[in-house]
C-alpha cells in the first residue's frame, strides 16, 4: 500500500520524519542532561544516525535505498575543493542577505532572541559549544531529511527542478513556525534551501551541504539568535541614508552568491554519470 502512494507524498513524509525527529532530540538532551554531557550524547547519536541513514544496520532490505537517499559516493580532491568553496559561499550568502535585510528594515531583536535563551548554561564557553552542537545537529539531520530522503526520490521520478523546489518549499515551511520568521526572512530561507538543494544535486553528495549548513547555523545561533558573538547594532538606511557600509554589504552578498554558484557549476561538471 505504501508503494501505491505518489512518490512526492512518500518522499515528503519520509524526509520530514528522518530529518526532524532526529534534529529535535538535541533540545531534549540539552535540557535533560545539561552541558557538557548533552553534547557528548548528541555527538554519539549523530555518529550512529549518519551510519544508519547512509545504509548501516537493520533492516538490510532498506540498505541500498538508504545509501542512495544519502547520496553515498567517494569524493575526489576536486570535489572537496569546489564543494567546500560552495558550502562556505552559501553560508556567507545567507548571513550577508540577513545583514542587507536589516539595513532595509529595523532588526527585530526581541523576535530573534525569543526562544534562544541559554542563560541556564553557566559559562560562555559551554554556551558557545551548545550553539556549535545545535548547528551540527540541524545541519546533519536537515540535510539528510530534506536534500537526501525527500529530494532524491523526487529527482528520480520528476527531475531536479521539481525536487529542489519541493524540498526547499517544505524546508521554508518548517522554519515559518519560528518567531524570527518575518516576511523578509521567508525568501532568504527559501533561497537557502534552493542553494543547498542544488549543491546536493550537483555534487551528488550531502557532505558539502552538511558542512555549509553547520557553518551557517553556527553564525545564526551564536550571533543572530543568542548574541554570544555580539549584537547587530546597525541602523536601517531609512535613518542613515545609503552609506558606504550598505554598499559594501550589498557587494559582499553579490560576491558570495557568485562564488557559491560558480563552485556549484564547477561541481556539476565534475559530477559522475
Descriptive notes:
With 273 residues, this protein is mostly helical. It has one domain (2-270). It is 74% helix and 0% strand. The chain has helices spanning 7-23, 25-33, 37-53, 63-69, 77-104, 109-113, 124-158, 160-175, 185-203, 207-225, 237-240, 244-270. Helix 7 (124-158) crosses helix 10. The longest helix has 35 residues, at 124-158. The model has no long low-confidence stretch (mean pLDDT 95).
The overall average pLDDT, rounded, is 95
* Helical segment count: 12
Q: How would you characterize the largest beta sheet?
A: none
Order of helices and strands: HHHHHHHHHHHH
Can you summarize this structure?
The protein has 273 residues and is mainly alpha-helical.
List key phrases describing it.
273 residues, mainly alpha
Amino acid at each position: 500500500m505504501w508503494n501505491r502512494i505518489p512518490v512526492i507524498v512518500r518522499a515528503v513524509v519520509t524526509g520530514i520524519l528522518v530529518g526532524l525527529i532526529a534534529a529535535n532530540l538535541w533540545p531534549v538532551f540539552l535540557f535533560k542532561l545539561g552541558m557538557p554531557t548533552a553534547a557528548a550524547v548528541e555527538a554519539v547519536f549523530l555518529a550512529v544516525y549518519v551510519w544508519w541513514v547512509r545504509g548501516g544496520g537493520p533492516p538490510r532490505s532498506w540498505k541500498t535505498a538508504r545509501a542512495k537517499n544519502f547520496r553515498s559516493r567517494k569524493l575526489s580532491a576536486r570535489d572537496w575543493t569546489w564543494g567546500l568553496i560552495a558550502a562556505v559561499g552559501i553560508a556567507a550568502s545567507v548571513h550577508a542577505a540577513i545583514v542587507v535585510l536589516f539595513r532595509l528594515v529595523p532588526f527585530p531583536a526581541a523576535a530573534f532572541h525569543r526562544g534562544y535563551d541559554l542563560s541556564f548554561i553557566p559559562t560562555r564557553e559551554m554556551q558557545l559549544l551548545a550553539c556549535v552542537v545545535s548547528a551540527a545537529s540541524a545541519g546533519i539531520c536537515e540535510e539528510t531529511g530534506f536534500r537526501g530522503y525527500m529530494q532524491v526520490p523526487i529527482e528520480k521520478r520528476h527531475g531536479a527542478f521539481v525536487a529542489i523546489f519541493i524540498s526547499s518549499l517544505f524546508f521554508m515551511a518548517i522554519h515559518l513556525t519560528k518567531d524570527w520568521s518575518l516576511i523578509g526572512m521567508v525568501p532568504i530561507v527559501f533561497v537557502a534551501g534552493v542553494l543547498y538543494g542544488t549543491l546536493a544535486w550537483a555534487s551528488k553528495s550531502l557532505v558539502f551541504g552538511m558542512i555549509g549548513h553547520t557553518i551557517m547555523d553556527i553564525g545564526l545561533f551564536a550571533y543572530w539568535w543568542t548574541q554570544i558573538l555580539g549584537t547587530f547594532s546597525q541602523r536601517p538606511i531609512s535613518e542613515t541614508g545609503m552609506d558606504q557600509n550598505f554598499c559594501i554589504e550589498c557587494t559582499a552578498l553579490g560576491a558570495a552568491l557568485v562564488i557559491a554558484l560558480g563552485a556549484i557549476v564547477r561541481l556539476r561538471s565534475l559530477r559522475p554519470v
